[in-house]
Amino acid sequence: MPVRRSMIALALAVGVAVAAPALPAQGAGGAQAAPAQGSGPNVVLRWNTALLAAIRTGTLGPPQVARALAIVHTCAYDAWAAYDGVAVGTRLGGSLRRPAAERTEANKAEAISFAAHAAAVDLYPAQRAGFDALMTELGYDPANPASRPAQTGVTACQAVLDHRHADGSNQLGGYADTTGYAPVNAPVVVAEPLTSLAQPGRWAPLTYVNRAGALVTPPFLVPHWGGVASFGGTARDLADRVRAPYAYGSSGFRTQSAEIVSITAALTDQQKAIAEYWADGPASETPPGHWNLFAQQVSARDRHRLDQDVKMFFALANSVMDAGIASWEVKRDHDSGRPITTIRFLYKGQQIPTWGGRTVDGASWVPFQAATFPTPPFAEYVSGHSTFSAAAAEVLKRFTGGDGFGGQAVIARGSSQIEPGVTPAQDVTLRWPTFTDAADQAGMSRRYGGIHFRLGDLEGRALGRSVGTAAWERAKSYWTGHG
């Protein structure tokens, strides 16, 4: 919801975390957090904020966004590693290491900034003016990487970019599918009752009017993404261990379908607020970026210095990239239908309850989502929200040394985009005592919204935890010098 984004932006601008206060962390990320130096956010936070701004104005979907965050923060980490006495870079190892006399905060910040700038421009070239402006604000000339720290940052990042340009994402080809995927079902027009579907258990494209007023039929988003090289090296293997979803028409499938109909028909204001808060559709930072906002709150809460933030965002961003790879591999493997099509087909000709106190023919059922983005354009199983969030929560737990979060968001009365002026009837406060609570709520939000079934949510959470653990171990191996 817009209220959430403005609240976090304001909190960061004045230097106050939205998360509740907590004691400084003493986790595996490093020594006890010391007071931050300087009057503003460190360069890691500045570049994270700049990239999230670019993400909101761009058109990339969640898995591409997760990869973009991972590349920028890997470039930043590899540049920083050259100024650490132990850490090694992900591509060039310790070959860029600078002597102890050069390991100053100023040199670290400059190397990180030139690296992050190079990555950001590569990923979002249309946003270059904003990235150049940040460099100028930080006191650097982006067109003149002549200093030793600048050269170190550019060299470190170019090695990462060279690797990622050949990682299977097809970034240089506009992320176009490389596998020849084609849906087995014809497009379903959301505004019309569903009367036929070739294979009701499989994914079907949707035709609807978007926010710009255009009639669109989005294709399956990056169906080749399971083939992208993962950071932890195990994303695809972990995906292959996920059990199959319920077959269409089976007892398990009918039970979970009935559950979605029942849940969405009886939504409370709080459940509606949860569904909308976590939706993260177009023009948002998407689920991977959402967890970067939480990490910014952790940084403020625990008074991180630059060294801690460069490692935390490096581990976090790579975990959500791998979560995208793993969940999209499962999505492509099973090509499973979304509730908006499977429930319509299952209940067509029957009167069923739905949100807003209405009763509709099952063939016209819609989830509790904005009409201009009724369901994301990719398969149901497993939930990307659940996988991204569980992976991110796992890394933040391990970095901070505990599950305590203390985050919250206030959803203003009447701020719903689906039921504007009506929902919620009163302000609703969402609270997450732990990172796990936040991740679980993110997963559950997709069931409240009628986007995912129970199994897709729960299996996504389990997959995310496994992916997050593997990414954490890999990240830690680099900054302890064993990468």
From TrEMBL:
<dbReference type="InterPro" id="IPR049283">
    <property type="entry name" value="DUF6851"/>
</dbReference>
<dbReference type="Pfam" id="PF21167">
    <property type="entry name" value="DUF6851"/>
</dbReference>
<dbReference type="InterPro" id="IPR055161">
    <property type="entry name" value="NapH1-like_2nd"/>
</dbReference>
<feature type="signal peptide">
    <location>
        <begin position="1"/>
        <end position="27"/>
    </location>
</feature>
<dbReference type="InterPro" id="IPR036938">
    <property type="entry name" value="PAP2/HPO_sf"/>
</dbReference>
<keyword id="KW-0575">Peroxidase</keyword>
<dbReference type="Pfam" id="PF22778">
    <property type="entry name" value="VCPO_2nd"/>
</dbReference>
<dbReference type="InterPro" id="IPR052559">
    <property type="entry name" value="V-haloperoxidase"/>
</dbReference>
<feature type="domain" description="Vanadium-dependent haloperoxidase NapH1-like second helical-bundle">
    <location>
        <begin position="312"/>
        <end position="470"/>
    </location>
</feature>
<dbReference type="GO" id="GO:0004601">
    <property type="term" value="F:peroxidase activity"/>
</dbReference>
<keyword id="KW-0732">Signal</keyword>
<dbReference type="InterPro" id="IPR016119">
    <property type="entry name" value="Br/Cl_peroxidase_C"/>
</dbReference>
<keyword id="KW-0560">Oxidoreductase</keyword>
<feature type="domain" description="DUF6851">
    <location>
        <begin position="71"/>
        <end position="193"/>
    </location>
</feature>
<protein>
    <submittedName>
        <fullName>Vanadium-dependent haloperoxidase</fullName>
    </submittedName>
</protein>
<dbReference type="InterPro" id="IPR006311">
    <property type="entry name" value="TAT_signal"/>
</dbReference>
